[in-house]
Design brief:
The protein has one domain (18-286): Aldolase class I (TIM Barrel, Alpha-Beta Barrel), CATH 3.20.20.70. It is 42% helix and 16% strand. The chain has helices at 44-53, 56-68, 80-91, 109-119, 128-137, 140-152, 164-173, 195-198, 210-220, 240-251, 271-286, and strands spanning 18-21, 24-27, 29-32, 73-77, 97-101, 123-126, 156-161, 179-183, 224-228, 259-263. The protein has an eight-stranded parallel barrel with strand order 3-4-5-6-7-8-9-10, surrounded by seven helices. Strands 1-2 form a two-stranded antiparallel ribbon. Strand 7 (156-161), helix 7 (164-173) and strand 8 form a beta-alpha-beta unit. Helix 2 (56-68) packs across helix 3 (80-91). The longest helix is centred in the last third of the chain and has 16 residues, at 271-286. The radius of gyration is 17 Å and the shape is globular.
Length: 289
């Protein structure tokens, strides 16, 4: 069963803050798509629970609810199932914006990028695990070439990673990147594949101290960063205060132009409303905006 997360008093009349993203603005809280694909990073049992819950109808219901709480952007992998959900959702009047992760199991990633741009993605980023595996294998030229393919499509070009040193390399080499997807946990300490790709839920490395190294890189770059694994894939949900503290630690550590990405599992509680309120409370109390 899913770990408990915070219950907070909701006030969705106040809009969520937004930040620039190319020629659009995105909400500072973005809903992440891992739960939609049963990728919990917690346990095989939770992953199956997510996968069973998130039918196409429930994905669309979740996106509608996210928009009602001021979340105007979803980040998810660009596979056929997610695209089908969004195609239906947009046809039914939904307006949520799509920042998409490449589906690294596909053979023709450049063709995949062309299709994602035509589909309507506002930003495309290279899957962090794929990035990390190329980096660890010394194939960084492959990363640069895929970034160029994204740039050629005229959308915001992003680089995902779990390894802080990848950001160092991208900045040193001045790779053509508009934004980074920065994980707060270096789960690529050992070479791995995403469970969605491999079908196997690996035992993953989650060290709560990892965030400090990644946040240092986030603050050092002028480029937009989208921070994810804010709650450690449910590992920081033991109490309402722990959840609030986890949000505050990341929001205070990133730049004002950055945003956070949080996967939200709606089966047991209204995490969308709760998380949106935490962000509103943080912004009001910190007087950040």
């Amino acid at each position: 069963m899913q770990p408990s997360c915070a219950r907070v008093t909701m006030d969705n009349e106040k809009p969520l803050p937004t930040v620039p993203f190319g020629d659009i603005t995105i909400s500072r809280l973005i809903i992440g798509g891992n739960p939609f694909r049963g990728n919990s990073h917690w346990s095989p049992e939770m992953s199956r629970d997510m996968e069973g819950y998130y039918t196409v109808a429930r994905v669309k219901e979740t996106l509608r609810h996210a928009e009602s709480h001021g979340i105007n952007t979803v980040q998810a992998r660009g596979d056929a199932l997610i695209q089908a959900c969004l195609r239906e959702y947009w046809a039914e009047g939904g307006t949520i914006q799509f920042i998409v992760q490449t589906a690294s199991e596909l053979r023709d990633l450049r063709g995949h990028v062309r299709q994602l741009a035509a589909f309507g993605a506002k930003g495309i980023y290279i899957h962090g695990t794929w990035t990390d595996n190329q980096y660890l294998s010394g194939n960084t030229r492959e990363i640069e070439e895929l970034l160029k393919a994204i740039r050629d499509m005229g959308v915001q070009a992003g680089l995902g990673t779990h390894i802080p040193e990848v950001i160092d390399l991208a900045e040193e080499k001045d790779w053509d990147v508009d934004f980074y997807m920065t994980c707060m946990y270096n789960i690529s300490v050992d070479r791995r594949e995403s469970a969605v790709v491999s079908g196997v839920a690996a035992i993953e490395h989650f060290d709560h101290g990892d965030k400090f190294a990644m946040l240092e890189r986030v603050r050092a770059t002028t480029k937009t960063c989208l921070a994810f694994k804010v709650l450690g894939a449910s590992r920081l949900c033991a109490s309402p205060q722990q959840v609030k503290d986890a949000f505050a630690a990341i929001l205070s550590g990133i730049k004002p132009c950055d945003a956070i990405v949080v996967g939200m599992f709606q089966k047991y509680r209204d995490q969308i409303a709760e998380n949106a309120q935490i962000v509103r409370d943080y912004v009001r109390e910190s007087r950040e905006f």
